[in-house]
């Protein structure tokens, strides 16, 4: 039996036009969610909307700069005005920064922290009040294994990115305590994921070299992360919150 529109759960996916965010949106739509995808790039949003191929009643693309507290709250209001509920928030928007301490500028540092950490805070702040009382809210923050390692020696990411993603882990744990029992808050830490950006940075030879050091023999795909997000959003055990889930093919086994 098909659920009435008003009974269908709603998910918000930031950075949902490409990469991990897009893969998460696709899996949540397949799981019966109405999904709002946000992204700073309007052209990317248009491409993603066409690729997802669902009716506009099921998908809401929103141009969004996660750094803007007021802008995020305005978009959250648009979602609530249209659908009257948010069940799942996936914070996937992020930027990388390959520069080390001696070369990075203050503006470049501020951008990484503002997008990755403040952006996650902004959306948690905007959405949590709509989940409290529903006793079923789920927040899933996309961090990185770089939060554990301090970055990589390659050109993909260094300390600023690692610091911002480590901040997300602290935010996740703190909110898991504060928002329980109404809202569960968990984080997913991807390892190296095959996207256009990473391939541009490491090349095919670099990809093969890195894959040889991963127990499962390959670098990850956006869908490898999305399937874990789908689990947390749909069939997550009710006794799970504040957890940090590494999805890295075993690359950083402790």
UniProtKB/TrEMBL annotation:
Keywords: Oxidoreductase. One of its GO terms (molecular function) is oxidoreductase activity, acting on the CH-OH group of donors, NAD or NADP as acceptor. It comes from the Bacteria. Pfam families: adh_short_C2 (PF13561). Belongs to the short-chain dehydrogenases/reductases (SDR) family. This is Short-chain dehydrogenase.
């Amino acid at each position: 039996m098909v659920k009435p529109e008003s009974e269908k759960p709603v998910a918000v996916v930031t950075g949902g036009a490409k990469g991990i965010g897009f893969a998460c949106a696709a899996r949540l739509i397949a799981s019966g969610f109405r999904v709002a995808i946000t992204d700073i790039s309007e052209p990317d949003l248009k491409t993603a909307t066409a690729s997802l191929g669902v009716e506009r009643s099921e998908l809401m693309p929103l141009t969004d700069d996660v750094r803007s507290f007021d802008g995020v709250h305005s978009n959250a209001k648009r979602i609530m005005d249209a659908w009257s509920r948010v069940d799942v928030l996936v914070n996937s928007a992020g930027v990388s920064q390959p520069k080390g301490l001696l070369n990075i500028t203050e503006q470049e540092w501020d951008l990484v922290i503002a997008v990755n950490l403040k952006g996650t805070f902004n959306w948690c702040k905007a959405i949590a009040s709509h989940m409290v009382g529903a006793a079923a809210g789920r927040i899933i923050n996309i961090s990185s294994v770089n939060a554990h390692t301090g970055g990589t020696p390659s050109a993909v990411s260094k300390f600023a990115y690692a610091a911002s993603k480590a901040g997300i882990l602290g935010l996740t744990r703190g909110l898991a305590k504060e928002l329980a029992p109404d809202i569960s808050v968990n984080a997913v830490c991807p390892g190296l994921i095959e996207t256009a950006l990473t391939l541009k940075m490491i090349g095919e030879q670099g990809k093969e070299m890195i894959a040889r050091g991963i127990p499962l023999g390959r670098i990850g795909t956006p869908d490898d992360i999305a399937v874990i997000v789908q689990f947390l959003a749909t069939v997550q055990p009710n006794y799970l919150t504040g957890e940090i889930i590494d999805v890295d093919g075993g690359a950083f086994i402790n």
